[in-house]
Amino acid sequence: MIPLNIIVENELCTGCGVCVSECQSAKAKMSWSNTGFLTPSFEQEPSDKDKAAMLLVCPFNSSPAEEIEDEERIADIFLSEAPNYDGKVGRFYSSFVGYAKNFRNTSSSGGLATFIFQQLLEQKIVDHLFVVQEVAGTYQYQLISNEVDVSNFSKTRYIPVTMADLFLKINDLDGKVAVSGVACFIKAIRLKQHYNPDLREKIPFLVGIICGGLKSRFFTDFLVQKAGIYGDYSRQDYRIKDLSSTALDYSFGAFDQQGKHHTIKMKTVGDMWGTGLFKSHACDLCTDVLTELADISLGDAWLDGYREDGAGNSVIVTRSAVAEALIREGLQKELLHLDEVDHTLIVKSQQASYRHRQDGIAFRAKVFKRFGKRLPKLRLMKSKKISLSYAMVQLQRLVVRRNSLKFWEDSPSIIRFDKKMKPSLFVLKVLTKIHHKLK
Ligand SMILES: Cc1cc2nc3c(=O)[nH]c(=O)nc-3n(C[C@H](O)[C@H](O)[C@H](O)COP(=O)(O)OP(=O)(O)OC[C@H]3O[C@@H](n4cnc5c(N)ncnc54)[C@H](O)[C@@H]3O)c2cc1C
User: Name one GO molecular function term (predicted).
Assistant: First the structure.
């Protein structure tokens, strides 16, 4: 199979799979890469026409048309009715923090995603959902139709998944579809809708899952070993809540081949998010913290006054009239327990993500350019000039990210991996400490 060179070779693919449906000439499919990501591959070299079509729907295209060149322009097309705008939040109606009473305990955060999907089906706004669900012990996007127990597919899964199937099936599907996705997946759907306007009606609602970076499959393999499973595993749960503790104090769990359940507290395995371990390179070139192009954006309420509650709370940003109505109705019917908050509080809940992704983007872009890496069309935020100490932290995070993928690929065993990672993680820790001191 031949990879889609420009994007895949420059590690700019996050595996959304939307490009696969644009390739008529070469039987495209999504396959696992050596570093544990899903990327497109082809039985033969695609035609030039197909290559161009695939790039048009790629969220990491380096030369998109001007009218869709960044999140702001795309939001102008799809979310123009939203009355409010903020440079960090995007276009929006309202913002809230809280939970869905019926789904909180069985969900990752406050159960808002599950609530929204239930309402979309119940109110017949859509006929199908395209969401991530267990399939044979692992997780994949699945098309789900009416009359389902929506809590069967609650919880977010931090293993690579792809939407490739959706656009291969959608033309034969009767009815409308709602989709959940992280920012780059939602952007890819918007691009596909832009070039195929029929799909705007067919996919009338997008649930945005706020994302701090996509992880390689190695992340799951690593956690499984940390939990004490050294063979095949299944039905991993990335967010097991501890109702007697705080929201941050959650566990990872999975089943071994004998069906025994193993768990490990995430706080014992080290910082998995701030370090960049097992992260996709493309995520270091994404500035969309709050899934700005979805109808509704949902994340974790990492905020004082909420994070103390181990049952979990969601942050919510409504961006379309339908999303706004669903939330207001949920409040009226007392299905939701929410505080309406200023949008700056939502920004505060993702402070670390803004710092890394938006403040650091211009510096990282310069570094990648120097190393001859191709860049997507970047939205260079009004980025502050970063300090020397933060630049050092940024550089070391790139080293940690690259090392983690290489070392796990070379020797997928936690003992060898931890030993090999120790020096670069130590340097990152020291540089971060120095940076915080100087700040
Ligand atoms: C890779 C990743 C990184 C994240 N990083 C952050 C972060 O930095 N900050 C933050 O606040 N929140 C982050 N989240 C989101 C957070 O973990 C919660 O998922 C979110 O708050 C929704 O919780 P909920 O209780 O409303 O969802 P639930 O009610 O539990 O429902 C989750 C829904 O998401 C769908 N789903 C599951 N996995 C995926 C997936 N991989 N892609 C698309 N849809 C999926 C499920 O089918 C389900 O419908 C991240 C999630 C992922 C997958």
Answer: oxidoreductase activity, acting on CH or CH2 groups, with an iron-sulfur protein as acceptor
Residue 209 Cβ contacting ligand 1 at under 6 Å: yes
Q: CB atoms < 10 A from the CB of 198, how many? A: 10
Is residue 236 in contact with ligand 1, taking CB distance under 6 Å? no
Domain assignments of the chain as residue spans, ordered by start: 2-56, 66-215+279-350, 217-268, 354-438
In SS3 terms, 326-349 reads as HHHHHHHCCCEEEEECCHHHHHHH
In the block, tokens 């327990």 appear at: 337
Q: Ligand 1 within 6 A of 353 CB?
A: yes
Ligand 1 atom at minimum distance from 302 CA: 11
Spell out a b/e string for 362-398, using b for 16 or more CB atoms within 10 Å of the CB, else e: bbbbeebeeeebeebbbbeeeeeebeebbbbbbbbbb
Residue 253 burial (C-beta neighbours within 10 Å; 0-12, 13-18, 19+): buried
Ligand 1 lined by 203 (C-beta under 6 Å) = no
pLDDT digit string, tens, across residues 343-376: 999 999 999 999 999 999 999 999 999 999 999 9
Check pLDDT > 90 for residue 150.
no
Q: Which amino acid would we find at residue 336?
A: L
CATH class of the region 66-215+279-350: alpha beta
- Other CB atoms within 10 A of residue 1 CB: 12
State pLDDT tens for residues 37-68.
999 998 888 888 999 999 999 999 999 999 99
